[in-house]
Specification:
437 residues; alpha/beta; Rossmann fold; UDP-N-acetylmuramoyl-L-alanine:D-glutamate ligase; ten-stranded mixed beta sheet; 13 helices; 16 strands
Length: 437
């Protein structure tokens, strides 16, 4: 994008320096008499910092510029440090010089890998980051995201229209989830959850209950081989499925359903694997595959059928490795895209930054939520939310990303300690009301 810009690089640097200087003055609460140290590297990141330094001097700020390449151990005392040492291309180790002053990062904190978020050395915890043109992966992927602080994206005139990666934000949700019409009825957003096995009956029950709370008009829950389904919510309809050969019955009864969720707690028996594969491959409605269902899929793909809606897969890192044959690696965007392309599916790769990639290479990032979601059963809740959104007509990529956002927000409004998966279900209506209104 830099290379394609019609303006010379000096113009882009001047614009970046202006954005950086404005942020610095805002943080300082003024300019005249303040003391600022600019840690500047030899590249354009450093040039952005030097331009900001000159602007601040003209406003009466006492500025010191320190060469980051000299690896100083400590910076001069002052009111603010502008970290313009190393930008998005940095690789290796960098130990930030000691300072007691707050730090404003230029584009990305020095020492954070712009592609992966990996951190090399002792990195500043910035109180704010001004990045240019667009977010960088290292600002949303951990641990780099934890060093950036609040982020300003400054427009410096670059054309970002070619990007295929976007961050989903709260204001996006209302435009992605359709309103219900006055003549809508329950079967227009019906979701069927198939999962469970001995000792795992709660998994599909949570998914079905979450689907109802996320807007499904009707939810059916079935456990293969169980004559009776225990633990289902009062609003959820339960139906029996045989222990073996149940895929044909499911496929023949999909005409009134808008989506199917397969896999929560379903087990890993050989017979189960064959049934899951058939349902996912032949379903005429959008499918979410979660939990044990993921390990049943053919890792060589594709897992769906050409012409059908691509199935949504929701792996954590261990399930990703089972499908891909290797861990996600440092570049999680590339990892999600590669698996989505190979399996012909929408892949939701769970993590502190959840990444949703479709088979064509488009990706959505979701940073909503925190460690409160690291609790048993929360993944089952997520699969039910996505199933409800699919049933309501949201396309698979958007349904997966919106589902992850709602899931994270439901956790964020809960208790800081002791939050459990069923609490998320109870919080969903309030979260939906807030975001959709």
């Amino acid at each position: 994008m830099d290379a394609a810009a019609p303006e010379p690089v000096e113009v882009l640097i001047h614009r970046a320096g202006g954005a950086l200087a404005r942020a610095a003055i805002e943080l300082l609460g003024g300019a005249y008499g303040r003391r600022v140290t600019v840690l500047a590297g030899k590249g354009n990141n450093g040039n952005d910092g030097r331009d900001a330094a000159e602007r601040l001097r003209r406003r009466g700020v006492r500025v010191s510029v320190v060469d980051a390449g000299g690896r100083p151990e400590r910076l001069p005392d002052g009111d603010l440090v502008i970290d313009a040492g190393f930008g998005t291309g940095f690789r290796g180790e960098f130990d930030a010089p000691a300072t007691e002053a707050p730090v404003l990062a230029c584009d990305i904190p020095s020492g954070v890998d712009g592609l992966t978020g990996r951190v090399g050395g002792e990195v500043y915890d910035a109180v704010r980051t001004v990045t240019f043109a667009a977010l960088k992966p290292g600002l949303v992927l951990w641990p780099g995201a934890g060093h950036a602080g609040p982020i300003d994206v400054a427009d410096i005139g670059l054309d970002t229209s070619s990007t295929r990666t976007h961050l989903l934000e709260a204001q996006d949700i209302g435009g992605l989830v359709p309103d219900r019409g006055p003549s809508d009825h329950k079967w227009q957003s019906a979701c069927w959850v198939i999962g469970g096995s001995p000792g795992m009956a709660a998994a599909p029950a949570m998914a079905a209950a979450a689907a109802m709370r996320a807007g499904a008009g009707y939810a059916r829950q079935s456990v293969p081989g169980a004559a009776a389904v225990d633990g289902a919510a009062a609003e959820v309809v339960t139906t029996a499925l045989p222990d073996e050969g149940w895929a044909g019955g499911v496929l023949g009864d999909l005409d009134r359903f808008g989506a199917l969720v397969v896999g929560p707690g379903i087990g890993r028996e050989v017979s189960t694997t064959a049934e899951v594969r058939r349902v996912v491959a032949e379903s005429t409605v959008p499918v979410v595959v979660d939990g044990d269902g993921l390990r049943a899929l053919d890792p060589h793909g594709p897992v769906g059928r050409s012409g059908n809606s691509p199935p949504v897969l929701t792996p954590h890192d261990g399930e990703y490795e089972a499908l891909a044959g290797e861990p996600p690696g440092a570049d999680r965007f590339a990892a999600a895209r590669a698996l989505a392309s190979r399996l012909g599916a929408v892949v939701l790769l769970k993590g502190p930054c959840t990444i949703v990639a479709d088979p064509g290479g488009r990706a959505l990032a979701v940073t909503e939520g925190d460690a409160r979601l690291a609790s048993a059963g929360t993944g089952d809740v997520l699969s039910g939310i996505i199933g409800a959104l699919l049933a309501r007509g949201v396309p698979p990529t958007e349904a997966a990303a919106v589902g992850a956002f709602l899931h994270g927000r439901a956790g964020a409004v809960g208790w800081a300690h002791g939050l459990v998966a069923t609490d998320l279900i109870d919080h969903l209506p309030a979260v939906l009301d807030d975001l959709l209104e």
